[in-house]
TrEMBL record:
Quaternary structure and partners: Monomer.
UniProt name for this protein: DNA-(Apurinic or apyrimidinic site) lyase
Alphabetical GO biological process terms: base-excision repair; response to oxidative stress
Domain FPG-type: 267-301
Length: 315
DNA sequence: CCCAGACCCTGTAGGC
DNA sequence: TGCCTACAGGGTCTGG
């Protein structure tokens, strides 16, 4: 459930608190949270302990903290990726949280704990909490971005597209790629190699705002609709960010353990049985891609004529 | 190569 | 009260 706005709230919350902090000690309580780490937990602990955190960064739903060496002579160890550096990568998955605490506060379901020493803020504790263990932490090497612009990214993020709030996101490239897809529009929105940061909640909200049905074939989506849809994705992201993200239960919290307010602004997600805010008809929930899709069947209809035309072309 | 679907994973809610 | 099942869906992998 943490999607771009929620991960960005976490990144922004971490930034002033942990930048410049040293990882004094690291404890892995559940090794399954290291699924994306290439090596055993001892390797994770060894490579993280003593390192200094730089300012956290984000692409889509991936969050990472570039690491400085805590040892002045470590630059000469000849490590293969020394030139590009390493980062602590976090993905929150379905239920992950990064909570910033004092040294005496524990959280239930903490899978990884990092004790931090900050030159200004003193002793801190970073708890990585994750109920369903779809999230992960790992130490990863940084690679140059494919388009060579802006910065490097962790190797496991290299295949993830820039997100629509990234200043280097290429609208024209996205629209071309969308048109070339042979799939349906919600699948495309959730495809992190096409556009990143969108999950089930914001996909449903953006589709409703743009009056597009989730099952509309991408090839039959008009250019105007595609442009509108991208604009609505950005709009819903910006609004959610302003409200501190979406929380339904305590599955998503900011770094201080607080909930966001965007759940009060949802138009269709989780609103089945209530009235569509636009036309007053009932919002429904349908199964799609093993997930719930929330929509107004009146406002959001598959354009049959467009499908017929594309079917004729295909046939 | 591209796309669809299976799979992972567990606390919580609700039924009986 | 307690057991059982359904549910939530990111990202990755595999099969067609």
């Amino acid at each position: 459930m943490p999607e771009l706005p929620e991960v960005e709230v976490v990144r922004a919350g971490l930034q002033p608190a942990i930048t410049g902090a040293t990882a004094a000690s690291v404890t892995v309580f559940d090794e399954r949270s290291l699924r994306r780490h290439d090596g055993p937990s001892e390797d994770f602990v060894d490579r993280l302990t003593g390192r200094v955190f730089r300012a956290p960064e984000r692409r889509g739903k991936f969050l990472w903290i570039p690491l400085d060496s805590g040892h002045p002579d470590a630059r000469d160890t000849g490590a293969p990726n020394a030139s590009n550096g390493e980062a602590l990568v976090a993905h929150l998955g379905m239920s992950g949280q990064v909570l910033l605490r004092d040294r005496h506060t524990d959280d239930r379901l903490t899978r990884i704990r990092i004790e931090l020493d900050h030159p200004d803020h003193g002793a801190l504790r970073l708890n990585f909490v994750d109920q369903r263990i779809f999230g992960s932490m790992s130490i990863d090497s940084m690679l140059p971005t494919v388009d060579q612009r802006h910065r490097t990214v962790p190797s496991q993020v290299a295949h993830i597209a820039r997100d629509p709030l990234d200043p280097f996101f290429d609208d024209a490239k996205f629209l071309r790629a969308l048109k070339a897809k042979r799939t349906t529009v919600k699948r495309a929105l959730l495809d992190q190699t096409l556009i990143s940061g969108i999950g089930n909640i914001y996909a449903d909200e953006a589709l409703w705002a743009a009056r597009v049905h989730y099952n509309q074939p991408t090839e039959s989506l008009s250019r105007a609709k595609a442009i509108l849809l991208l604009a609505e994705v950005r709009a819903v992201f910006v609004k959610a960010l302003a409200e501190g993200g979406t929380s339904f239960d305590s599955q998503y919290l900011n770094v201080n353990g607080e909930s966001g307010y965007f759940s009060h602004s949802l138009n269709v997600y989780g609103q089945q049985g209530t009235e569509c805010p636009r036309c007053g008809r009932l919002v429904v929930r349908e199964q799609f891609m093993n997930r719930g899709s929330h929509l107004c069947r009146f406002c959001q209809r598959v354009r049959q004529s467009a499908i017929s035309r594309s079917a004729l072309r295909a046939g």
